[in-house]
Amino acid sequence: MIRPYVDDVHALRRVFSGFPSGVAALAAVVDGDPAVLVVSSFSVGVSQDPPLVLCSVQRSSTTWPLLAKAPAIGVSVLGEGHTEKARQLASRERDTRLDGIDTLVSGSGSIFLHGAAIWLECSIEAAHDAGDHEIIVLRVLGFRDDFPHRPLVWHRSAFMTLTSSA
C-alpha cells in the first residue's frame, strides 16, 4: 500500500536510500587551492549530444560556490579503493579532505583521484533550483575510463561496491 508523504524527512531518506547511486568527487583548483565535494546523486547518460551528466548539491554546501567558479571540474567516479577515504573526502574539514589521496591535476585545474572508476573533465552547463538542493548539469569535455576498478555506490546509507552478475 502506498503511504502519503507527511513531512517525515527520516522516512523519506530511508526510502530514497533503497535506490543505489553513484558516488563521485568533484574537484578543481580554485584560486590556487584544491576544492573537493563528494556527491552521492551523480548520474550519467543525461544526454549524449551534447554529452551531459548531472548531480545535485545541497544549498548549504560551502564548497560548491568555490567549485562553481572553476573553468573546469574533475569528476572522479569513486572506486572500490576509496571506501575508507569517502567520508574523509566529504568531511567538513576542507583543508584535510585530500590528505593521503593520490591525485592528478590537469592543465585546466581539474583534479582527478587515482583509483577512480572513471574520470570526466566537465564544465558547468546549467544549474536548476530543486528545493534544498541545486541540480547541476555538467558538460563532458573529456574522459578516461580504462581503469580496472569497480565503482563505489551509496545504498541503504552505506558505501558498497558492485559484484559480477549471477
Give an account of the 3D structure.
- This protein is mainly beta and 166 residues long.
- It contains three helices and ten strands, in the order αβββαβαββββββ.
- It is globular.
Q: Gap between N and C termini, in Å?
A: 31 Å
The SSE string, one letter per element, is: HEEEHEHEEEEEE
Overall pLDDT metric: 88
**Proportion of beta-strand residues:** over 45%
Task: Give the overall shape.
Answer: globular
**Low-confidence sequence ranges:** none
The helix-and-strand class reads: mainly beta
User: Could you tell me the number of beta strands?
Assistant: 10
User: Can you list the strand order of the major beta sheet?
Assistant: 1-2-3-8-7-4
CA radius of gyration: 16 Å
How is the quaternary structure best described?
single chain
Helix % is under 10%
Tell me about the largest β-sheet.
6 strands, antiparallel, barrel
Keywords:
10 strands; 3 helices; two-stranded antiparallel ribbon; 166 residues; mainly beta; six-stranded antiparallel beta barrel
